[in-house]
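Record 1 of the preview.
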Amino acid sequence: MKTKSLGFIGGGRITRIILQAIANNKTEYKAIVVYDLDSNVLHALKNQFPGIREAGSASEPAQQDMVFVALHPPVIMETLDLVKDQFKVGSIVISLAPKISIAKIASKLPNSKNIVRLIPNATSIINEGYNPVCFSKEMSDWKKQTMLTIFRRMGHTFEVPEQKLESYAIMSAMLPTYFWFQWK
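->
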């Protein structure tokens, strides 16, 4: 059953990983809308995932039920400032970036109370990820459980205190990136 729409602001590597995890599970959504500054990135995603809709601006994905902010940390705050009025009341904003706290995101999105920080790792592409997540205090337990159910389709997903999220990101995502050649 198609119940939610997804928006991705940023179409890079982690968006591709999440889209592949969705495709692997054959999960259906009302719409999946992706925006990226680089039209070549969007066209490549569209070729790989024909069901997505390419957006002409960040405003389009911001209007979906669940909005993934998949940008590099240096541009997140200015991008959120540009589209802050586009988010639907009740939408869930999911930041995929380390370093930027829920409080900082909330400062740019005063009408969005449902804010999530998720640090998925690369093995989520085969639905075997190790994905720490934390939620804003305002999110209801029901919404948290709904989000955990969705995120667990990418692999092992578990709630952690926000102050520990960076440690998990380093150990589960960044560390293997830098030492894979030694382990191999």
